[in-house]
Automatic annotation (TrEMBL):
Protein name per Swiss-Prot or TrEMBL: L,D-TPase catalytic domain-containing protein
CDD domains, sorted: YkuD_like
Originating species: Phreatobacter cathodiphilus
Catalytic residue positions: 469 (proton donor/acceptor), 488 (nucleophile)
UniProt-listed GO biological process terms: cell wall organization; peptidoglycan biosynthetic process; regulation of cell shape
Length: 572
């Protein structure tokens, strides 16, 4: 039995943060084992004797059943014995960054406990049972009271309150992970699953919690509850959205990771019959992620059996490369689309996926390292036959002005490029391109056999002006290194791809290759889909093929090294 020690009431009234020397709480780093984790079955919670535990008046008032809101008039301050309602410490006036002028309306004021109310709460006596054993005297009500104090008290930890108060207020501050003064079965399952975070390509150390030593009280158990909740919420954020900010790593990453927020994560765990499955579900659901994660577990098992330092080091580097790939899986939408288009720049390939099966695959040419194909998701909505090429000014400046300046304005005419100004075609040979303001002109290559876009382009309008297209330069598809374009994706077999996509997007309209060819040679013609098809331009240097083998691809843009360095704190 531990010595009976109580917190002095004067210390409680002075601020609840101070404790006498004999009862000061110290925290130690632990993960799965602690004196507060009970063994055996959980004891049934028992009511605290009235002389040892008493609800404050304001808590009694809140516990009284109320009639429906539409059956009573508005409450007034006098209903609570107050001259006026105090301002809310949680819902404060804040500027709205999305508006031109700051938001001036306050959130509706609600009655909040005062310092006097908190001071009237009776002492929180320590447990009289041996450490590690359930104590029915540390009731759900006592722990809920302490959670309310920690999360709603003015002057408390604002970050903690803002993160966790919405969830706990919504459940009347009832604890989720503890019961009878110890970690409950749900909490133990959460701790065990968080301890396996390394198998997900995450860092288990990030989810370790600080557990208290010393006298066990409802307050210390409440803080244990909050530590567990914070760890689960952090894991959910990392597992669903990654540990990096992709837009800070590269301007070519145009993604918004589907990060699961704190309240949604904890509500999911609270509803779950299987806590382990709920926490695992924070990770991406995609089969490609799951297969790659299984490879990480397999590789770590292999490394433990290695006998030389050099072999172990090389294997560890490969594991870090794989973890960087898992990170990028977390940037993708949770739903890729039952049918979707998948363009992986590292393998320069376009795949059409239905369900989990690749139903069409064709080689592609993607952007050069200096003009990369960006990473983003969108939806393809139409195909243009006999396209014109509206040459981007960036390409004109980078690739055409120099030759035009050296060889005269005939450079554009020889390539069939029309130059217009103010909507009128001009004679490019009369312009001094060495000094011309190129931004005043537009450049267009009309449809034809020499058109840079070939016979068709596949459109998913986006801010990068990126699309898939045919090309007259067929020889490039035979190369092993196909990072050769200005950013758009050239397709080796565009007719087969178009016929498949049109059959999916326009069923019953008989868009065969023969029908498309009958339309070649005329003006532009757009064929719009009835339903857009998701397309994902991605960057993975490690994948698992249909035989279960790990495929390693070149880091053509250096993205994997960049992500790997960010995950390891810049150490590469």
């Amino acid at each position: 039995m531990i010595e009976k020690r109580y917190v002095q009431k004067g210390a409680v009234r002075a601020g609840f943060a101070r404790r006498t020397e004999g009862t000061t709480m110290h925290w130690q780093s632990a993960f799965l084992a602690c004196a507060l984790i009970g063994s055996g079955s959980l004891a049934t919670a028992q009511a605290e004797p009235a002389q040892r535990f008493r609800l404050a008046d304001w808590e009694v008032e809140q516990a009284i059943p109320r009639p429906p809101l539409d059956a009573v008039g508005p409450v007034a301050a006098r209903d609570f014995g107050l001259e006026a309602f105090p301002p809310s410490p949680i819902l404060a006036e804040a500027p709205n960054a999305d508006d031109e002028a700051p938001e001036t309306a306050r959130a509706p004021e609600v009655p909040q406990p005062t310092e006097a109310d908190f001071a009237a709460i009776p002492d929180d006596p320590p447990s009289l049972l041996e450490e590690g054993q359930p104590d029915p005297a540390i009731t759900v009500e006592r722990v809920a009271q302490q959670l309310r104090i920690i999360l709603a008290r003015p002057g408390g930890d604002r970050a903690l309150q803002q993160q966790l108060n919405p969830f706990y207020a919504g459940r009347g501050y009832q604890p989720l992970f503890v019961r009878d003064g110890v970690v409950a079965e749900r909490g133990q399952a959460a701790l065990t699953r968080l301890g396996q975070a390394g198998e997900d390509g995450l860092d288990p150390a990030a989810y370790r919690i600080q557990l208290p030593t010393g006298p066990r009280t409802a307050e210390s158990v409440a803080r244990l509850e909050l530590a567990l909740a914070r760890a689960v919420a952090l894991y959910a954020s990392h597992a669903s959205g990654g540990r990096t900010d992709p837009k800070r790593l590269s301007g070519y990453f145009d993604v918004s990771p589907p990060r699961i927020e704190t309240t949604a994560a904890l509500e999911s765990v609270a509803r779950a019959e299987n806590v382990t499955a709920a926490i695992d579900g924070f990770n991406p659901p995609h089969p490609g992620f799951r297969r790659l994660r299984a490879k990480l577990v397999e590789m770590r098992g292999e490394r433990r059996e290695m006998t030389t330092t050099e072999a172990t080091r090389r294997h560890a580097l490969r594991e870090r490369d794989l973890i960087a790939n898992l990170e990028r899986w977390r940037w993708l939408p949770r739903q890729l689309g039952e049918t979707h288009i998948w363009v992986n720049s590292t393998e320069a390939q376009v795949n059409v996926v239905q369900g989990t099966q690749v139903v069409h695959s064709t080689r592609a040419v993607v952007g050069r390292p200096e003009t990369q194909t960006p990473v983003f998701s969108d939806a393809m909505s139409f195909i243009v036959l006999n396209p014109s090429w509206h040459v981007p000014i960036s390409i004109v400046r980078r690739s055409m002005l120099g030759p035009a300046s050296r060889n005269g304005g005939g450079y554009f005419a020889r390539r069939g490029i029309q130059v217009t100004q103010g909507g009128r075609v001009v004679d490019a040979s009369t312009i001094n391109w060495a000094s011309a303001n190129v931004g005043r002109y537009t450049f267009r290559q009309p449809p034809g056999t020499a058109n840079a876009l070939g016979r068709m382009k596949f459109m998913f309008p986006n801010r990068h002006a990126i699309y898939l297209h045919d090309t007259p330069s067929r020889g490039d598809f035979g190369r092993s290194n196909r990072t050769l374009s200005n950013g758009c994706v050239r397709v080796q077999n565009p007719e087969e791809l178009a016929a498949l996509l049109l059959g999916i997007a326009l069923p019953g309209e008989n868009w065969t290759i023969g029908r498309m060819r009958s339309l070649y040679g005329g003006g532009e013609r757009s064929v719009r889909f009835r339903q857009a098809i998701p397309i994902h331009l991605v960057y993975f240097t490690m994948t698992v093929d249909s035989t279960g083998a790990l495929v390693e691809l070149p880091d053509v843009y250096g993205h994997n090294a960049r992500v790997r360095a960010a995950l390891s704190g810049g150490r590469g």
